Amino acid sequence: MLAAILAGGENTRFPAPKAFIEIGGIKIIEKALSVLKGIFGEVVISTNEPERYFYLGVPLIGDVYNVRGPMTGIFSVFSATGAPEVFTVACDMPFINPELIKALTKKKKTGFDAVIPVWKGSPEPLFAFYSANCAPKMERRILQCRTRQCRTGLQDFLSEIDVLYMDEDEVGAIDPGGRSFMNINTPEDLKRAAK
After folding, report:
1. Phi, psi of 114 (to 5 degrees)
2. Which CATH architecture has domain 2-194?
3. Where are the domains of the chain?
4. Does this model's pTM top 0.85?
5. pLDDT tens across 80-92, in order?
6. DSSP secondary structure string, 78-123?
């Protein structure tokens, strides 16, 4: 199985690259890599700034199309690897729970395009499994957005694919407080995470 850390964000709300923020003395990207290597046979990083990540010693995959966003990153991982499925996580999530990832792994079933946990009433598409069945639909959406104004957000995309949602109660039993889904977008988020 393959996991991908999505590190292609534009960092507009935080004054430094979020993947390299330290929480508890360890960089977020290094902690994520350690957790994912304990579960998956291969881990890659989706990034358009490979020079920042060379030292981590894992494959680095740039965007196939010049349309920014996590959907382009995920599609590019499918294009580069030919993987039948990919687990994705954002590079600014400092508290990913390996037990929650394993529980999602057990929920994968043939016929679903994605397996996504729900927290606080909303899907968490940046902490999810995607099947290669999604790739053509992602590419179509990305190409449409090259020629006209449209959205490449994953939340909007979920209505176009067949998703198995992991129930919020089940998520909470494994990850009380939903810490896996916390991300660092602002300096205030960092202060909250440090606590």
Report:
1. -155, 155
2. Alpha-Beta Complex (3.90)
3. 2-194
4. yes
5. 999 999 999 999 9
6. HHHH--SEEEEEETT-TT--HHHHHHHHHH--TT-SEEEEEETTEE
